[in-house]
Amino acid sequence: MSRIVLLDSGPLGIVTNPKAASPLYQEGKLWLQSLPLKGYIVMLPEIADYEVRRELIRAGKATGIRRLDELKSQIPYRPLTTEVMLLAAQLWADARKRGKPTAEPNALDGDVILAAQAILEAKGGNEVVIATTNVGHLSQFVDAREWRSIQQ
Q1: Rounded CA separation 66/18 (Å)
Q2: What is the tens place of the pLDDT at every residue in 122-144?
């Protein structure tokens, strides 16, 4: 069994921030570097890459895109699959039926897609945590924790 941390777009944006001198970037980078030392495998879900990359492209932040590409080459990347999307559709519908939607009705809803990826990783016998800045939406589906709080 592996201990996996899936990065949500919040922490991913922090660690790829083009403003490398900012205290938040420095804290995020140290946090990310500490995870393997604590026994975690850090993974980059495609949905988080998409959410961060689209904003970096829109804002013309080439340094951020370069950092995102570097990170993508250094840690395991989890692409979207049909299995992920089918489970995400089920999670989305179930959340709506319970009256707990995580996005507007016509939104893509990256949270349920990320939750589906986490659930499928866990079904493989892994302990999975999503590192996020948005614990509320994700925690109704999976173990989601504030990115700073993930400890061994």
Answers
A1: 9
A2: 999 999 999 998 888 777 788 77
Rounded distance, CA 26 to CA 14, Å? 9
- Please work out, in degrees rounded to the nearest 5, the angle formed at the alpha carbon of residue 75 by the alpha carbons of 149 and 7: 35
DSSP string, 90-130: HHHHHHHHTT--SS-TTS--HHHHHHHHHHHHHHTT-EEEE
DSSP line for the chain: --EEEEEPHHHHHHHT-S-TTSHHHHHHHHHHHHHHHTTEEEEEEHHHHHHHHHHHHHHT-HHHHHHHHHHHHHS-EE---HHHHHHHHHHHHHHHHTT--SS-TTS--HHHHHHHHHHHHHHTT-EEEEEES-HHHHTTTS-EEEGGG---
6-62 tens-digit pLDDT? 999 999 999 988 787 788 888 999 999 999 999 999 999 999 999 999 999 999 999
Distance CA(24)–CA(44), nearest Å, equals 20
Per the structure block, which two tokens stand in for 132? Answer: 């996020």
pTM: 0.89
